[in-house]
Amino acid sequence: MEAVREAVLSDEPRFEELVAEFVAGMATQRGGSRLLEPDPGSGGAVVSRPLPALLGDRHCLVLVGTLDRAVTGVAICHHDGRDGPGRQGRLDACYVEPGARGVGLGRLLLDTAVAWLESEDCAGADGVALPGDRLAKGFFEAAGFKARMITMHRPLG
After folding, report:
1. Given CB 3.0 to 4.6 Å as the disulfide criterion, which of 26, 72, 122, 128 pairs with 32?
2. How many domains are there within the chain?
3. What is the pLDDT of residues 110-123, one digit of tens each?
């Protein structure tokens, strides 16, 4: 049975393993290194912050997904903290280890994160699918996300 709950400090070792798998997978894809760069004002890329720091950030939510009570997935989201109608949310990570995929845990993590962002009065939520990652794009589209911008990048210097 799959379930989602807020992360707690005792989840830290497993959380770190799953985030490391997520980061390693992203880093090998085109554009993935850009996702791991610091988020302005956050003190570093959200996914690279330690769990205690994330749990202490009132603008951030960390979830763990379980399959038969074993932690097999994580989701991290945050919002920019602005007051008023322009507050934006971002899904920084939504990852389920390969052996636990296909049972709906990723969607449950995503839906729970989006519900929290909505409860925080966010006007919208962004999630990132890297170029060529059709699985991620399809995952987001099935949850009601639509592409609103394609960012082109050229390194300089």
Report:
1. 26
2. 1
3. 999 999 999 999 99
